[in-house]
Structure formats: structure tokens, C-alpha cells
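Supplementary Methods S3. Complex input for the NAP-bound model.
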Amino acid sequence: MKKIDRSKPILVTGGTGYLASWIIKLLLEEGLTVHTTVRSIGDEQKYQHLQNIQHRAHGRLKFFEADLLIDGSFDDAVRDCELIIHTASPFQLTGIKNPDKELIQPALQGVRNLFFSAGETNTVKRIVLTSSIVAMVGDTIEIKDLPETRINEASWNTSSSPDHQPYPYSKTIAEQEAWRLTEKLNSFDLVVINPGLILGPSLSKRVDSTSISLMIQLCSGKFKQGVPKGAQAIVDVRDIAKAHIQAGFIQEASGRHLTAAHLKDFLDIAQVIRTGHPNYPLPTKFVPKWLFKLVAPLFGYSRKFVSRNVGYDFTFDNSYAKDDLKLEFLPFEQTINDHFNQLVNDKLIPDKT
Ligand code: NAP
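Predicted complex, serialized as C-alpha cells:
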């Protein structure tokens, strides 16, 4: 529990990302100095939006090149920082050909490289790590075995593997490694954010981030015939950005934080959009499980995934996160409407309003 000096730079890894961009915006608007890492300084298109934000804000932003897979890559970026917010990690649920190369090694080596660089500085006091609710539970079928069928901070995903649900596996082992290294290096403390599915407006026009592509697919008719049954623990990107910042600056904050706000399914999302915008090819029903199982590979899901994840109810307990990080969540309708409007305004979905 060490106090963070707000005049020192804060490192946010993966600045080009959907979530990191919001964290950086909020920090710059508070007038703070931010270091951020991008994979290639030459690829300015990926971070132009951050430069625009910096011009309008009081804070200062400095870019560094770093790759999760390269030893020592974060050495320059961590210099002089007391607080690090580590968001960078590949987030991909489907279309994965080589899970080890595409997901597992970047997540795991990224934690190792960053934590070793941080441990060598003598300045870093705290790391806030973006983990996920999927590091708490793998297949939703397992939730019935949890006390009160509720996911909370005591839950750990024990069923994912490189062959089954590799993204949840990558998040689980990366978070476990982060806890192990924090204890071993004994020079900074660790606070972990475990978000549910993040939605809400994006600050960039990129469409390859999973949260963005999901919304685009939903509004573009991909699921017109129906969606698989099953709730999602949804949270607004602006709330999650704030959660990371509170986790950095609230001195007593500690441990893991299940940070999700609303238990909703894809028909609930479709209904919010349809209410204001009836002209989009949105789904109106659930696909029967047997049918989705049949066609699942066409959508990039395995039949085992469908068996163990479609149609199971669950609940989650966000009381610790709300209390420890002093959080309030935006209403579900606002998250969906703001996200939809941003996609229309940025011409990423057609304007049929
Ligand atoms: P995103 O937009 O895809 O951002 C991922 C970031 O990771 C990008 O900046 C990406 O850089 C960077 N990255 C990936 N591989 C890298 C590598 N080898 N070296 C350096 N940087 C690399 O996804 P996001 O939704 O913002 O996700 C941010 C974090 O939140 C991730 O840790 C994710 O697991 C976690 N999370 C997301 C959700 C959600 O619903 N979105 C839910 C729970 C947890 P490039 O731009 O160069 O690709």
C-alpha cells in the first residue's frame, strides 16, 4: 500500500487498444503525464486518435515502442513511473489457428517482460493488470458448482486449456503469473481488474477489436436468424477505464475485482438498438442449441464450446469491486446506445436512422 505520486508518469501498455485509449484519455484529462507503448511507432494510423486527444487535454503523452514477446521491450517505457496499467494482451475469441503463438505466449511473456522491467526500476510501486472474468470461470456449465452459483473473486478458471477456450486460458495463466511474480520480486503491489464483456463507444475507428466487431456483426445482420442463448456480464468501457485508474490511485485497493455491471443476453442488446432504430437486421430470437451446435464451426466456435456454454444461467457478485474501487456503473441502455451511435457516426455501420 504505497501512495502514488501523481506528478510522475503513468505507463499504460497497449495504447492502440479499445480499453487503453479510454484510460489514456481520462488520465490526460486529469492533467497527468502518460507513457504508452505501441507495437510500431511507424504505424501512426493506429494511435492518431490519441494524439488528437492529447491536443485537447492538459496532460502530456509520450509514445514508446514495445512488444509483449520481446525481452526488455518495456525498459524505456517504465523509466520514472510509479504506476503501470497493463492492458496489452491479444483479445480474440474465434479464428485462432495457433493458440500458443497468437494468444498464450504474448499474454504470458508480456507479463514476464513487463514485470521484470518494473522490478528493476526501484520506482514502480503498483501494477494494475487487466485480467478478465474468464480467468475466474471457463465454461459456464461449471458455474452451477460454485457456491450460490455465483462468480466472485475467489473463483478461478480450471477448465480452459490451449485446445479448449485458449483465450480464457491465456488470461488465466497470465494473471496467475502476475501474482507469482509480484510475490517473488517483492518490489511493487498488484491490483487486478477482471472485466466482463466490455461495450460502449470506441475512441478510434478500428474494427478489429473483439468488442467492436461483435457490435458491428450484431447490427449488420450476421445473427439475423437468431443468437445463442446465454447471458453476458456486460460493462461500459468508460466504467472499466475508471476502474483501472481508481485501482491505481486508491491506496488501500487490493486483490482481484470482478468488474461487471449488467447480466444481459444478445437479444437484450438488440432490443435496446431496435427501440430507437427499427431498420436494422437485428436478431429477434434464440437459435435452438442443437442447431447452433450444428453450425457453430461456421461461426468459429467448437461443438464442445457450445455444449458447455450455451443456455446456462449464471450470476456474478460485483460488490467487492464497487466497494473497493468506489465504482458506479452507467445504465445498460446508455452503453448500447452510445456504442451504436459511435459506429453510425464513424460510418462503421450504415446510417438507416
Ligand atoms: P484490443 O483493442 O484488441 O487491444 C489489445 C491491445 O493489445 C492492442 O493495443 C494490441 O496492440 C495489444 N497487443 C496485442 N498483442 C501484442 C503484442 N504482441 N505486443 C504488444 N502489444 C500487443 O482489446 P481490448 O478490448 O482493448 O482489450 C484490452 C485488455 O482487456 C486485454 O488484456 C483483454 O484481454 C482485456 N479484456 C477485454 C475485454 C473486452 O470485452 N474487450 C473483457 C475482459 C478483458 P495492436 O493495436 O498493435 O494490435
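The two ends are 51 Å apart (CA to CA). The chain has one domain: 10-345.
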